[in-house]
Each structure stands twice: as structure tokens, then as C-alpha cells.
Design goal:
Blueprint lengths: L4 E5 L5 H11 L4 E5 L3 H7 L14 H8 L4 E4 L2 H7 L2 E4 L19 H13 L4 E5 L7 H12 L5 E5 L9 H6 L4 E4 L5 H14 L8 E4 L1 H32 L3 H9 L20 H14 L3 H28 L8 E5 L14 H11 L3 E5 L5 H11 L4 H7 E3 L3 H5 L4 E4 L11 H7 L5 E4 L6 H7 L2 E4 L3
Parallel strand pairs: 1-2, 1-4, 2-3, 4-5, 5-6, 7-8, 9-10, 9-12, 10-11, 12-13, 13-14
The structure holds uridine-5'-diphosphate-xylopyranose (2 copies).
The site of one uridine-5'-diphosphate-xylopyranose (UDX) has 24 residues, from helix 5.
Amino acid sequence: MKISKICCIGAGYVGGPTMAVIAQKCPQIQVTVVDLNEARIAAWNDNDLTKLPVYEPGLADVVAEARGRNLFFSTEVDKAIDEAEMIFISVNTPTKTYGIGKGMAADLKYIELCARQIARVAKDSKIVVEKSTLPVRTASAIKSILDHTGNGVQFQILSNPEFLAEGTAIEDLFTPDRVLIGGETATSEGQKAVNALVDVYANWVPKDKILTTNVWSSELSKLTANAFLAQRVSSINSISELCERTGANVNEVAKAIGLDSRIGAKFLKASVGFGGSCFQKDILNLVYIAKSYGLDEVADYWEQVIIMNDHQKRRFADNIIKTLYNTVSGKKITFLGWAFKKDTNDTRESAAIYVADYLLNEQANIAVFDPKVQEQQILTDLDYLNTRSSEENKNNVDITNDPYQACKDSHAIAVLTEWDEFKTYDWQKIYDRMLKPAFIFDGRNILNKEELEKIGFIYKAIGS
Ligand code: UDX
Ligand code: UDX
């Protein structure tokens, strides 16, 4: 079976870049990305490529090449579903904020809505691909909805989790470490569906990097990969605290252990804490699944990764307060960076949000500069916590698009995101504008300690 038309429901950080790359690499396949959010679709269609709703290095070039040729963005969901032979579901699956599993389980309401919509619209057989990260065994729920509400149409469900990291999405999609496809390989229909998706990726990914497994293994692999990565960050962050007490330097420790080829160098950067849409959500999911099978030790083991991460964010904020003579009330503290990591405008679960919240509770005034995050997003992130009124957030948080202005009359700078441009700032000029003593809390260990201390800053890194 050769695929000629693909539809993707959800034009977000995953759906948008993934479909853009599929379209660019497979000019013979028509790819339509649909979303309920009209403003988002309008932004994907904007002639000005700097207005794309997702910022990713290299994305604009890919969109420029494929858009209008075989890549389309639309709000006509039914039409796109009807025409496609293969439908990707890439809608968000936030952590539940109500009812059973509140604060832990994934909210699958959007996934279910998608399944019902597909069932209603489909007139011929379809391959449905789960792209969203989902708890194990979601595919069976989707299948059940499709089989019982559809018009007697045949559906095959595949799991094809996304391993791209934001900020390097295009590179990750061009040359993935592996592509994972889970399907019902025991039946010939299932095998055909798997092969159809393998053929799509084989347009640019070497065959030996395309792995096929059963559906459950594929779903669980995604949660496990993120849990292992997050665990490494929490592990090194736990050591950062020990380093601060003992005089060891966490950068040196990370380097020394990373050179052990069994351990490897990646994901050993101590930080103010991991963020992003996946790590916390996926681990909580894993914990919830383990609990629901009565596996309490397994659940507690993974939950500790999250507890450590919350501790690291809190510790960073506490250290600022303690160092500023035990009070930040009425003091201006400048945040450099708000995104959860560099090269993205995504702020979901960013450590900056929580650090700001702690400091606002201590009546600090926060100034924020981030090269890619919009003012409204920052305020929305804080309002979402529901700790104080939007009015109060607005009054106590000052967002500017000039880093030098953001640092003026400030008591301390906190580096929350590792944007490269921070390293190239005129730090003497910044020092001259700040109140003295001028403090820098480097939550990403990216600045040059010697240089800053020579200027007169009091510099505090994580883990030394
Ligand atoms: C999301 C999940 O967070 C992640 O776990 C999963 O692996 C992929 O999907 P992301 O693409 O980053 O990741 O989410 P987001 O940027 O929020 O995009 C989802 C899009 O789906 C939004 O634009 C939303 O408007 C759209 N959507 C949601 C629909 O079109 N229909 C719905 O019913 C629900
Ligand atoms: C992650 C996975 O890497 C990706 O494979 C999956 O598909 C989605 O989730 P992403 O959330 O985009 O990707 O970012 P990632 O680069 O993994 O970083 C996650 C968080 O960990 C960031 O806040 C980052 O700053 C932090 N981190 C990462 C550290 O603090 N130290 C490190 O050494 C590495």
C-alpha cells in the first residue's frame, strides 16, 4: 500500500515540524495539517515566515520549500480526514487537572475527540497513527472507539512516538537516531499498515534505523526514554547540591563521569531543573500506570525524579533569597530567559515559571527578558498557576525586549535559559547599570565566572 495523502490533527510543536519535514522529504505525498485553533493555522500560513507559531532553527526553510506544493495548513478537519489514507494524531495530552488521576494521569479527552471525529467522517479504511505521547494501551481505546462508532470501516492503529527535542527538531527529524513504529504485526492487515509507514520514513531514513515493535512496546518506549533522560538530569542535579556543600565542582564531576563510555557525556548538565512538555508529564504517567497495577515501589522510584526536580527549582529560588540577605521584598531581580531551554519559544513547565512564583511570593519585583518568548505568554504562564491575581502578576512582573534595560537598577540576575546570546553580552555595561553588590545566579552554568568576578559581580553557579 502506497500512501499519497496524509492528514495530521494538531499543528503544535510536534505536528507542525514533523509534517513539514515529511512533506519536504516526500514531494509525492500530500500532507495536510489541521488544527481547531484558527489563529494557529493562520500563523502557519503567514507569508512572513518569522510569524510561524513554532520557533525552531531551520523550520522556516523547510516550510518555505514545501508549503503550497504538498504541505497545507487548514482548519477543515473533516475534509482532511476524509481525503487521507493515513491520519496522525498529534494533539496535546496534558496532565489531568481534575477527577481520578488528577495531577498525574494524562488527559485523553482530546485524543478521544479525535478518534470520534475520525470515526464519524471516515468512509474508507484508514491508518491512524498515534504521534502524541500516550499512556500504554491507549491504542486499544482508540481502536475500540473507531470500531464501535465507525461506519463499518477498517482501521489500523499504529504508535509512532516522536523523539525530537525542541530546539533541534529539524535536525532530529532529518537524521533521527531511530524511528519507532508499533503495530499489530501479527495480522497481515496490521503488517501492511506498518509497512506503509515504514515506506514513508524510508524516503530519507536508512532502513536499519526504522524499528518495528508491537504497539505496547512502542508506547512504553517513549515514556521510558523520557524517564531515563529526566532521571539523568535529576541525578546530576542531586549531586550539584552535594558539590555545593563539599567544595567539589559539578561540572568537573559531570565531565569525569561522562568520559566513561558506559555512562556517556549527554544529559549531565546541572541546571535549575528540567522543564518542557514531556519529561514531567511522561514520568507522572509512568508513575500513575505503575500505581494502577499496584506496583508501589516502581511508582515511588520514578516519582523521586520529579521530587528531585521540584527541589532543585525551589533550592535555586531559596538560594537567591538567602544570598540577598534573606529578603527580596521590593527588590528587582532580572530573569534572563523564560523558555524551558534555548532555541525554542516553548515555555511549558519551564523552571523559570516556578522560580518566579516563589520569588513573587516573597514580594520581589521580577524583570524578564527572553529573546523569543512573547510578553503575553509569560503573564499567561504565571496566571495559570493561580497563586495570585493577573492584576498582581502584571504589576510585579516587567517584561522588556532589551536585556540591558531589564538589568537596570536590578539587585540580581538569574539565568534561567541557556540562550547563547547571553554569553556575548557587554557584562561591564550591565554591571554599571545594576545596584551593588551585583549578583548573578547562573541556573545554567553558561557564563564565565572569572570574567564576571573581575568586573565585580558576585557570581553563583549551580553545583560549585
Ligand atoms: C503534544 C503533546 O504535548 C505531546 O505529548 C505529544 O507527544 C505531541 O503532542 P505539542 O505538539 O508540543 O505536543 O503540543 P501543542 O503544541 O499543544 O499542539 C497540539 C495542537 O493540537 C494544538 O495546536 C491544539 O490546538 C490542537 N488540537 C488539540 C486540535 O486541533 N484538536 C483537539 O481536539 C485538541
Ligand atoms: C524531550 C526528549 O529529549 C525528546 O526525545 C522527547 O521527544 C520530548 O522530550 P525536549 O522536552 O524538547 O525533549 O527537551 P530536552 O532537550 O530533552 O530537555 C528537557 C529539559 O531538560 C530542558 O529543560 C533542559 O534544559 C533540561 N536539561 C537537559 C538539563 O537540565 N540538563 C541536561 O543535561 C539536559
